[in-house]
Structures are given as structure tokens and as C-alpha cells.
């Protein structure tokens, strides 16, 4: 029998088992669907109990349905043949037959752990590990590992060269895929680590840190669904491009309840996608910002009145700037700015009452005075201007105007100018988001508005109702800070987090367990010590458990050898990974005249596009990427979806079959973290790498 025939026979045999599992999956989906319909019908009963019951039932059934649908593609991916002849099938979710017998073991269940843990040295009762390659519900191939040849029956068929290699050499597309069928032992250990304190996953580029962390999120949800689903799991990555790259992994593992946010989107209501230039970015990320922001959060809004005059019977009552300032401090000493909103009228009225000397007023007494003043539009208008409820973003907009006055000595002249220039753009950058978050916590929230006029803060009584609601609604465009906490926080590319970003995430993970993924050698943050201190504060004494991944599954050995030399310039003692896959394709380097740089980049991209099947990136320094993108519009359009033009920072965490690096010296010169950024860029390529530059100082430095 030829090996092709043998493989075909095995595929057919597996297909009949897989068909049976799909039949059961479809039956479960039908049950879930009918529960949704039944649940909806219960709503028509009309009483409150019926509605609550309906909501719970429909919610559960719909969740089950979406998990079943999400797991459909490639549902069955593994089979263990045990020493006693039994078989165990492993899949994205668990499936039982009509008699509740297990047909498919969920990959996260303890019974599936040996699928990942068994090795030829320690087979743990497994004779053969088989990976089923499927396209939707069709088995298209099998790849076997014989783990225990001595105990294998004579007729055991072993096919293929191993599933891992087959999966590593596939062409890359625009999204990351689950690696559930080929998780390696050291990766599995990090995935299944208990959820206590902070689990850190380190290792060089391409070692699977991201994909492992995502599988870990799915694992945690499986092991303690109540805790993690109700408390929430937050996954934070560096950029919007990165988030869309990873967004399909968890749904394909049947998990749809995880919150994915890029660093520019952590605060509700803000979607920032732009990086600041390095000087402004470093200043905004520094913990020196905290003191300045605290002052800005306490300062009067620009244009706030500095005096109040009030004519009352025989008196002219007056609060001057110094008195108002004192009252302001008194209010802020007692509560956060927006919380003090309700107390402001009382404090002002009290200060005015102390000035009353006229007999007529004194005779009528304090209560009469308070009643008259607080319902007088002149007073109400003044309070509204002097102590308005503020959105953090409104204070953020004042920063360029107050920085000179409020930050004396904290920032250098160069930093102040860079900050002002960056704030000239009307929308926040990625680096501004933690600043807005800091301000949210500094100013606090308004007390809940109430529909009952009597309970509403007094100062609003004579206001038009519509105006009040508008203001309060606007304020609420930012979610309540009480809702920020999560049960688990997973941070990817953590080496890049600035101190201010750590503070922002720390607030979300105060009571959470954490998974922290990173590689110092890829860091683009220039001040690691300051960040380490902020990280420590964010984790607040939680115990850390470290895992290190050692094999680079992404880069060819040829590409990684070049990149590793660049890493050694960027950081002392980089954590280098073992890249074992050789392709015979050495990276190419071209040096050209400045006038032909764009043409050379275009030629290199065209060449690579012709030699790989999957995605290609052209990567340039930040300062020139927009221009290059415009120059290459036609090429990008011609290769719809396969070619992207990016700057170095935007390539974080991504991978492409081919990469063209334009002007590497421009990338290393860009910031003090430039060499590490170049290391990141070079390690994005799975197969082909070409550099094109007008100079080659970087090559001389590493040779
Ligand atoms: N066990 C595995 N089986 C198949 N592919 C894998 C495995 N582990 C990792 N990979 C693949 O290797 C590539 C790199 O993985 P990933 O992006 O998670 O690495 P990383 O360590 O986060 O990299 P970087 O630090 O450079 O961003 C991905 O294509 C991933 O699917």
C-alpha cells in the first residue's frame, strides 16, 4: 500500500468520527436555538418574573449558540492513541453524545493536557499523537508524532512530518490564528499556570508569547468561568492594527466575552491611534506628569470668574479672588472636584452670610438668606461658571495653556515645547489616554443625577431641566470609574508601557490576576527603570510567576541571525530565542542613491510579493512613512490586502511573510530606543527580508 493510500484511508476513517461529532454539535445548536425561541415566548407572559427568567434563559442560550458557532471551524483537531488502544479526541470545545458519553474533550480540560505535555521522553501513556488538519468540517490531512514506538501495535499507521512544521510554513494572512492543535510543552505550561498574582511570559521574538497569552485567557475562562466572565477579562495590546490582528483567536476558541483594547482605547469614549513624536511621548509617559495633572485638575477652568458681587437688602456682598481661592481649596480638601460640585453652593452661601451686616437681613435670619440666595439666578449662574462639573477631556484641553504656570521645573524647556506642539492637535494621542484617565480619577464623578427635583443638587434648581440633563449626559460619555475593574488583565508588549500607562492599567487590575507578556529587547520605552517602578506599583505586591518561551517559531534562522546582532546593540544581554527553521534565503541589503530610494523600495516589495504567497510589509521611519505610503498607493492597491506600509512602532506584535525595511539608519536614529525598534522590524518577517537604505551605518555597526 502506498503512503498516499494509507494517508487517504486514515483521513476517511477520521472523517467518519468527525462527522459524528458535527452531528452532535448541530443537535446542541438546535437545542440552544429552540431555547432562545422559548425564552422569547416567556417574555410574552408579561409579568416581571417572566421577563427576568426570559432574559437569563435567552442570554445563556445565545451564549451557548455563539460558542458553538465560533468553534465550528476545525472543531476536532487532535487524537491521542493510548497504550491500552483507547482513543481520545481533542477539540475546541467539549461535545458529548446522546448518552452523555464524551465524544470530544475540550482542549482546556485536564484530560486534554497530555495532548500537549506528552513527549517521546515522557509519553505518559500516549503512543501516537495525531493532529487532524481540517478545512471547516472536512479532514484534509493528518500529521502524527509517534511518542512510544516500543509499545505501539504493529498495525499503527504514522503519517506526516509533524504538525508543527506544517503549520509554521503556511503563508501568513492578515490575522493571527489559534495554535490550539500544535501548542508546545513549554507553552502549555504557561497557558495552564494557575491564576494567582501575576504570570509573566517572556522570551524573544516569535516565541508565541502573544498566542500563548490568548490561549491562556481562554483557559482561565474555562477553568473559572463564573469569576472571569462576571469580573471580565481585559486584553490590552499596543495598537489598533495589532488588536485587529489578534481579534479572531479567542472567538475561534469559543470565547466571545473578552474585552480587547489597544492602549489608545483603554478609556471608554476615546479612540486614539496616533503616536506622539519621541520627546513629547517620553514626557507624557513619565510619572513626572502626575504632579502637573493633579494641579491642572484642581485649577479653575480658563475664563472662570474671579469675583462675585451680590446685592442683598442693605449689603453689598463680595467674594474676591483670594477669598474664592480659599473656598476652592476648602472644597477640594473635602472631596474630588466633581464630587464637591454639590457642596459648592453651601460653601459660597456660608461665606456670603458671614459678610451680612444689614439689620433687615439679620433679623430675617440665615435660613431666609440661604433660601433667597440659592434660588436666585444670579447666584446659580455664578456657581455654574465658578464650579462647573468638568469632563476630564475638558481639563486635558487646557493643558497647553496651564503647563508653563503649573509645571515649573518639572519639565525641560524642550519638553514643554514638544508637549505644547503635540497638544495643538485637537484629538488625544495614544500617549494622552493615560493622562485623561489620570484626570478622570482626579476629578471624580458627579453624584448620580436624580429624576426627583427635590433630591437634585440645590444649585440646579432654577435651571432649565434640559440644560442640566445635557451637561450630565455629556459628563457620562465617560464610563463610571467604578466600572473600570476587571478580574483578569492581560497586557501584551508590556515592555513598551510607560509609567503613566502602567498607572492606567493598574487601576483596572487592582483586584485582578494578571498575565504580562513582554521582551525587554523589543522595548520602545526609553526609561526602563522608571517603568519598572510603575509596574511594581501597579501590581501592588502581587506574587509573580515567570515563564520563558525559548523557540522562535516565526523567523527563518537566516533572518534571526541578522536581527540578533541588532538586538545586541539595542540592549545589553538580549533574551535571544532559538530559530530552527532554515529556508536557504539570506536577507538582502541594498544601498542606493537618495533619489532612487522609493523606486528601490518599490522594486524590493514587488520582488518579495512575487516570491511569497502571503502578506508583505514595507516599513519606514515615522518621519517618512506617510510620504512613502502615498508613493506606493498604486502598489498597495494592486496587491489588495497583501501589502501594507507601516512605521516601526506599528509593526509591534505583527508578522508578515516578507518585509522590506526602508532606511534602517532612519529607524535607529529616530529615538534612543531606535535600535530596539529596528530589531522589532527585522523580526517581523517569516520568510524573506530586504533592507533598502541610502546609508548603511547600522550594518557597519553590527559587522
Ligand atoms: N505552538 C505553535 N504552533 C504553531 N505556531 C506557533 C506556535 N507558537 C507560536 N506559533 C506562531 O509563531 C508566530 C509568533 O507567535 P507570536 O506572535 O505569539 O510570538 P511573540 O512571542 O508574541 O512575538 P513578538 O514578541 O515578536 O511579538 C505566530 O505565527 C504563531 O502563530
UniProtKB/TrEMBL annotation:
GO biological process: recombinational repair
One GO cellular component, as annotated: cytosol
GO-annotated molecular function: 3'-5' DNA helicase activity; ATP binding; DNA binding; hydrolase activity
Superkingdom assignment: Bacteria
Keywords noted in UniProt: ATP-binding, Helicase, Hydrolase, Nucleotide-binding
Binding site for ATP: 203-210
Protein name: Helicase
Species: Aeromicrobium endophyticum
Amino acid at each position: 500500500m502506498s503512503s498516499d493510500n494509507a494517508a487517504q484511508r486514515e483521513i476517511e476513517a477520521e472523517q467518519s468520527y468527525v462527522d459524528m461529532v458535527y452531528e452532535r454539535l448541530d443537535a446542541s445548536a438546535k437545542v440552544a436555538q429552540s431555547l432562545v425561541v422559548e425564552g422569547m415566548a416567556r417574555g410574552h407572559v408579561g409579568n416581571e418574573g417572566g421577563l427576568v427568567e426570559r432574559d437569563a434563559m435567552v442570554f445563556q442560550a445565545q451564549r451557548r449558540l455563539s460558542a458553538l458557532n465560533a468553534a465550528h471551524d476545525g472543531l476536532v483537531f487532535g487524537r491521542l492513541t493510548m497504550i491500552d488502544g483507547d482513543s481520545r479526541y481533542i477539540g475546541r470545545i467539549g461535545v458529548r453524545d446522546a448518552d452523555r458519553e464524551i465524544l470530544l474533550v475540550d482542549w482546556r480540560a485536564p484530560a486534554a493536557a497530555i495532548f500537549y505535555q506528552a513527549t517521546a521522553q515522557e509519553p505518559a501513556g500516549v503512543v501516537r499523537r495525531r493532529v487532524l488538519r481540517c478545512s471547516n468540517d472536512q479532514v484534509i490531512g493528518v500529521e502524527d508524532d509517534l511518542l512510544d514506538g516500543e509499545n505501539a501495535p504493529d498495525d499503527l499507521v504514522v503519517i506526516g512530518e509533524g504538525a508543527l512544521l506544517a503549520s509554521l510554513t503556511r503563508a501568513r494572512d492578515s490575522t493571527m490564528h489559534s495554535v490550539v492543535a500544535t501548542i508546545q510543552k513549554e507553552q502549555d505550561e504557561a497557558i495552564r499556570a494557575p491564576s494567582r498574582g501575576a504570570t509573566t511570559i517572556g522570551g524573544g521574538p516569535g516565541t508565541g508569547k502573544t498566542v500563548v497569552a490568548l490561549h491562556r485567557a481562554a483557559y482561565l475562562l474555562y477553568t473559572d468561568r463564573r469569576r472571569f466572565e462576571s469580573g471580565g477579562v481585559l486584553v490590552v495590546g499596543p495598537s489598533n492594527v495589532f488588536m485587529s490582528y489578534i481579534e479572531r483567536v479567542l472567538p475561534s476558541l469559543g470565547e466571545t466575552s473578552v474585552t480587547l483594547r489597544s492602549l489608545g482605547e483603554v478609556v471608554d469614549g476615546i479612540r486614539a491611534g496616533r503616536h506622539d513624536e519621541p520627546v513629547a511621548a517620553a514626557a507624557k509617559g513619565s510619572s513626572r506628569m502626575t504632579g502637573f495633572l493633579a494641579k491642572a485638575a484642581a485649577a479653575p477652568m480658563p475664563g472662570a470668574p474671579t469675583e462675585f458681587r451680590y446685592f442683598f437688602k442693605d449689603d453689598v456682598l463680595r467674594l474676591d479672588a483670594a477669598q474664592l481661592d480659599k473656598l476652592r481649596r476648602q472644597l477640594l480638601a473635602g472631596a474630588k472636584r466633581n464630587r464637591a460640585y454639590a457642596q459648592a453652593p453651601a460653601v459660597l452661601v456660608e461665606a456670603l452670610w458671614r459678610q451680612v451686616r444689614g439689620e433687615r437681613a439679620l433679623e430675617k435670619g440665615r435660613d431666609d438668606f440661604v433660601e433667597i440666595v440659592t434660588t436666585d439666578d444670579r447666584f446659580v449662574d455664578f456657581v455654574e461658571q465658578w464650579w462647573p462639573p468638568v469632563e476630564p477631556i475638558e481639563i486635558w484641553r487646557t493643558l497647553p495653556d496651564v503647563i508653563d504656570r503649573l509645571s515649573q521645573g518639572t519639565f525641560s524647556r524642550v519638553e514643554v515645547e514638544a508637549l505644547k506642539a503635540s497638544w495643538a492637535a485637537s484629538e488625544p494621542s495614544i500617549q494622552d489616554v493615560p493622562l485623561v484617565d489620570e484626570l478622570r480619577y482626579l476629578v471624580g464623578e458627579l453624584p448620580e443625577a436624580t429624576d426627583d427635583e427635590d433630591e437634585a443638587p440645590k444649585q440646579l434648581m432654577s435651571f432649565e431641566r434640559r440644560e442640566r440633563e445635557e451637561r450630565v449626559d455629556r459628563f457620562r460619555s465617560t464610563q463610571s470609574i467604578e466600572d473600570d475593574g476587571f478580574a483578569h488583565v492581560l497586557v501584551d508588549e508590556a515592555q513598551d508601557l510607560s509609567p503613566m500607562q502602567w498607572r492606567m492599567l493598574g487601576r483596572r487590575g487592582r483586584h485582578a490576576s494578571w498575565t504580562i507578556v513582554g521582551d525587554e529587547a523589543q522595548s520602545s520605552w526609553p526609561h526602563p527603570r522608571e517603568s519598572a517602578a510603575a509596574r511594581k506599583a501597579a501590581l501592588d505586591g502581587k506574587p509573580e510567576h515567570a515563564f520563558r518561551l525559548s523557540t522562535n517559531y516565526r523567523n527563518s534562522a537566516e533572518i534571526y541571525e541578522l536581527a540578533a546582532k541588532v538586538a545586541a546593540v539595542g540592549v545589553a544581554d538580549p533574551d535571544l530565542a532559538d530559530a530552527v527553521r532554515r529556508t536557504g534565503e539570506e536577507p538582502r541589503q541594498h544601498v542606493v542613491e537618495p533619489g532612487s530610494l522609493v523606486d528601490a523600495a518599490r522594486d524590493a516589495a514587488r520582488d518579495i510579493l512575487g516570491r511569497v504567497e502571503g502578506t508583505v510589509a514595507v516599513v519606514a521611519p515615522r518621519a517618512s512613512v506617510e510620504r512613502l505610503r502615498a508613493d506606493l498607493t498604486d502598489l498597495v492597491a494592486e496587491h489588495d490586502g497583501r501589502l501594507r506600509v507601516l512605521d516601526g512602532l506599528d509593526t509591534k506584535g505583527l508578522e508578515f511573510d516578507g518585509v522590506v525595511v526602508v532606511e534602517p539608519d532612519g529607524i535607529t536614529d529616530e529615538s534612543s530606543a531606535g535600535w530596539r525598534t529596528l530589531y522589532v522590524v527585522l523580526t517581523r518577517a517569516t520568510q524573506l527580508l530586504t533592507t533598502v537604505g541610502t546609508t548603511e551605518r547600522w550594518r557597519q555597526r553590527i559587522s
